[in-house]
Amino acid sequence: MEPVTTEAALPAKRPKFLTVLCILSFVGIGISLVSGIISYFSYSTLANAGGMLNSIGAGVKDGEKIGESMNALANAMGMDYGKWALVVLIQTILNIPILVGVLMMWKQKKVGFYIYAPFEIIQPVMPIIFGLGLFGGLSAILSLIFAIVFVVLYALNLKHMNGGTASDAASASSLGQKQNPAAGSKSGTFYEIRVGNVTCVPVGATFKVGMTVTAKKFATDSKTGKVKEEMINDEIQIGMVKDGKEIYLKSYKFTKTSTLLNLTLNQKPDKIGVDPYNKLPEKV
């Protein structure tokens, strides 16, 4: 069956490794959100308590100096609670784009990785950006190591993801669009045929293949050149190939614009083609 036109590739199954990575990320994001909210209020409380040291010690001999020394020591160690409250708040908010990226990678959309990766790297280095001293630096380095590991592991799974953009979706549903000479004629009948929402589920020794076929019929007036859509009531072939060889070819009568087909095959096809032998002039 050559060539196969107006075809759609069957969606690849999400690898178990990618599934495990996404689940770990979902759990980690959930923990980060909860701990971030708790930490924000805790650091805010400590920041307020630290600010009270000077005022409380003001009535005691050298009390104010002692309070200032304690705050200076805490700040040098990276325990500026006011800054930590702000850092934790920012890190908690950054979980939102990270979650969006992981959700898109769960759906095997490559664009999710490019949303996820920069925010995953930026999130742990916030203590360094805000100059939170030794404690902040150590915390950032440890978190950054884990972040880099996950980014690398997700990068290794990019080959299992698709483009995930509108143009990619369009090309997947109309791959190999026909350039039939009859389609460019100023009069006559032509068709617009697409296949999408392709699924393939193994059931025992067989495969249940589902798809939505969109078929429209048009007629061009030879005098005015105007195009109008007509009711479709035509037979259209559905073909499938595996390793470049035809494994299925059958004609179906289509009477609606959108038709759901569910077929059973003994083999898993690589691609599905509508009107694979170009029997119908198609709109271009």
Notes on the protein architecture:
With 284 residues, the protein is an alpha+beta fold. It has two domains: 16-160, no CATH class; 178-274, Immunoglobulin-like, CATH 2.60.40. The chain is 45% helix and 24% strand. The strands form two sheets. The chain has a four-stranded antiparallel beta sheet with strand order 1-8-5-6, with no helix packed on it. A hairpin with a 6-residue loop joins strand 3 and strand 4 (227-230). Helix 1 (16-57) packs antiparallel against helix 2 (63-76), helix 3 (81-106) runs antiparallel to helix 4 and helix 4 runs antiparallel to helix 6. The longest helix has 42 residues, at 16-57. The chain is elongated, with a radius of gyration of 31 Å. Residues 1-5 and 164-186 have low confidence and may be disordered.
Q: Name the shape in a single word.
A: elongated
Total helices: the number is: 7
Low-confidence stretches: 1-5, 164-186
Spatial strand sequence of the major β-sheet: 1-8-5-6
- For the record, the count of structural domains works out to 2
Give the end-to-end Cα distance, rounded to a whole number of Å. Answer: 22 Å
Average pLDDT? 80
Order of helices and strands: EHHHHHHHEEEEEEE
Rg measurement, Å? 31 Å
